[in-house]
Amino acid sequence: MLQFLGLPCIWFKTTDNDTQYRAIKQFFGLEVDADSILTRCVKCNEAQLELIDKQLAKELLRWDREEDYDKIKEFWKCAKCFQVYWEGNTYKKAKARFK
Q1: What is the per-residue pLDDT across 31-74, written as a single tens digit (0 to 9) for each?
Q2: First-to-last CA distance in the chain?
């Protein structure tokens, strides 16, 4: 087993993120709870994401096309850094990746 400063580490022979993710899970024996995926802010790691109304999302996001807001059912905001989230394509891809 590779070690660095007495800690276990893993060496990747690939730059493919999916392959690296699977290798990390296997190497460290990690279990992934699908319900815990994407429940923290990816910007600041805050655990509290608050459901916000569409008007506040518009003020925070300031997208050019008004009709884009109508495509989104719910928006969430990080309580710490105010990053806004919604269940769009990026969210769906990330959920699928970590199953």
Answers
A1: 887 777 788 999 999 999 999 999 999 999 999 999 999 999 99
A2: 27
Among 16-30, 45-59, 73-87, the minimum mean pLDDT is found in 16-30
C-alpha 77/C-alpha 84 separation (Å) is 4
| Distances 85 to 32, 43, 77 between C-alpha atoms, Å | 21, 11, 6
DSSP state of 43: T
Instruction: Compute how many other C-beta atoms are within 10 angstroms of the C-beta atom of residue 85.
Output: 19
Other CB atoms within a 10 A radius of the CB of residue 77 amount to 19
Q: Which amino acid is at 40?
A: R
8 touches 2 (CB < 8 A):
yes
Query: Do 66 and 77 contact (CB within 8 A), yes or no?
Result: no
Which residue(s) pair with 75 in the sheet?
A: 52, 86
